[in-house]
Amino acid sequence: MLDPMQIILTLHGLAGSKEGMYAFNIELARRNFTVVSVDLAGHGDSPLPYDIADTATMAQDAYAALRYVQQNWATVDNESYGVLSHSLGFRVAIELKDYPIAPMGYAAVGDIGQMELGLYLDFPGNLLIAVGEYDEMITVDDALNAIRIATGNESAVSDVTYGSLVNHTAYRLALAPTDHVFEAVDGTIVEESCKWLIQAVQGEGQLAYTLDPASQVYFNKTIATFTGAFSLLLSLFPLMLLVYTFIPEKQKPRKIENETEVFGFKKTFAISSVLGAIMITIYTVTSAGGFHLENIGLAWPKSMFAVGFILFYVLSAILFSITMFVLMGKEATKKAFASVGIQRLSLKQHVIDILRGLLIAGIGIIWLMSWLALCGLPEQMQPWTLIALIKWPVGVRGINTVIVTLFAIPYLVADAAWLRGLLLSKREWGANGDIKATIFAFIAKFAVSGILAVVVVFGTTALGLIAGKMVLLGLLLLLFLVVQLLTTIITAWTSLKFQNVWPAIILSAFILALVAVSSLPLI
Questions:
Q1: How far does CA 314 lie from the centroid of its chain?
Q2: Which of 12, 171, 236, 287 could form a disulfide with 16 if both were Cys (CB 3.0 to 4.6 A apart)?
Q3: Do residues 165 and 245 both lie within one domain?
Q4: Cβ atoms within 10 Å of 144's Cβ, excluding its own
């Protein structure tokens, strides 16, 4: 073990967090580095607003965290350190090259420092550029051009080190078979980054004495993260069933009969496909529109893309209703909404329906939040051991989560009418009818919307060459669809088990809001 140990400062990219850098953090810590990983402004646990252009202030904050550790930990070298960054984190890392104590080495993952076509940042010495061959924003030719500009060698290629690490003039390009998002957990990139920083910061000779960079264990956390999150969400089903079973009969949500019209399979699939296409179209338009509104200062609440989300929820609720009215007819649409409790009842009865649904959903929300709180207590567990990507909504994020939840409810009411009033209408399925009906509902709901989502993702990643935030539009759509799959399962399940979807609507609205707000930076 090295004593004192050098530090590696890790900096995430746009919409990332310190927890998302776990692959690098774990493997570097196993190789005698003290790792300092920070949340940039507006990300993770940071309550500060994020300004994509203010990399200087973010660098000051990161440097302050680094110096605090160097000056207060006896086992840490008080000067020697390196920096590893992902994506736009490199724009922060590169600011440090002019600081009084500059990094001894840099590993830039998923960014080549290109400001615009043919124009690059002033590259620091001892720089590794590690890029996925399928990175949506960086072509292999772009990466090769970057290393050639950095080295001044027009024939420079990947996997060759140019210059001298001792003289701080070394450069290297590493390519891996991955895309932009998964660069942060790619084994080849993790290995190359560890090798580079060991040599640049600890010394070239140290590579022969340290743990082989190819010997990696971080993927165990990848498995734990996803299985932990999946298991937690899966636990909601028996929990809701237990609550429903043990609450007094008078407090249970009323059973609403599904007396909707039954259309033929082809017509049902066609209507559902139109609704799915409308959903993706509205998402794309409102997200792009919200992106523009945020750029001109019209942002509410203060989370990136939150304006677009709210516009999406409002417009989708309206256009879903209009489309169902046009394609299904007035009476069939009324019955579809009646199947989810939207019918001519007294205001008191509607309030009772919502409160009884809230009783079951509320316990599910408390269950989720309790685990999020537990996973965030370093004294009890390693920080965010189970759930690395969803955070407890602290401060402004808590307020934003409530706001987005409230706006999501009307959308999910219309979505539930689509699901229960059209796709889960009572058909003669024979044996295992509920299973067959649910499978058909999923296929009809997500077949067309899934295909269109892929088109949007590829389109927005292409636009990411112009505006980095546009990439998030597509990636957030994929995340939204994954969560939408979960909420559809919850809605279908409560429809069949409770004959009432209000618990699912409220719980799903909260989950959608929590994922969106915790995944995106404050602005």
A1: 22
A2: 12
A3: no
A4: 19
In this structure, the answer to whether residues 448 and 512 fall within a common structural domain is yes
Task: Measure the CA–CA gap between 37 and 385, rounded to whole angstroms.
Answer: 15
Burial class (CB in 10 A: 0-12, 13-18, 19+), 74: exposed
C-alpha angle 477-463-24 in degrees, rounded to nearest 5: 65
What pTM does this model have?
0.88
210 lies in the same domain as 231 = no
Token pair in block for residue 419: 């699901």
Q: Which tens digit of pLDDT belongs to each residue from 19-74?
A: 889 999 999 999 999 999 999 998 888 888 888 889 999 999 999 999 999 999 99
Query: What secondary structure does DSSP assign to 502-513, as a single string?
Result: HHHHHHHHHHHH
| CA distances to 39, 243, 356, 493 from 498, in Å | 42, 12, 12, 8
Asked if residue 504 and residue 447 are part of one domain, the reply reads yes
On whether both 150 and 283 belong to a single domain, the answer is no
Q: Are residues 90 and 145 in the same domain?
A: yes
Taking phi first (over 0 means left), then psi (-120 to 50 degrees means alpha), and beta for anything else, what does residue 318 get? alpha
The whole domain housing 136 covers 5-217
3-state helix, strand, coil in the chain (%, to 5): 60, 10, 35
Same domain, 104 and 244: no
Work out how many domains the chain is built from and give that number.
Answer: 2
Residue 340 tokens read as 């989810």
Quote the radius of gyration of the chain (alpha carbons, Å).
26
Asked if 49 contacts 301 with a C-beta cutoff of 8 angstroms, the reply is: no
Return the pLDDT at 443.
94
Q: Return the SS3 of 186.
A: coil
Tell me the pLDDT tens digit for each residue of 258-297: 889 999 999 999 999 999 999 999 998 998 888 888 878 8
Residue 66 belongs to domain with CATH number:
3.40.50.1820
- Tokens for 215? 């010997």
C-alpha span between 509 and 513 (Å, rounded):
6
Q: Are residues 165 and 292 in the same domain?
A: no
Is the distance from CB of 303 to CB of 517 less than 8 angstroms?
A: yes
* Sign of the four-CA dihedral 197, 201, 207, 212: negative
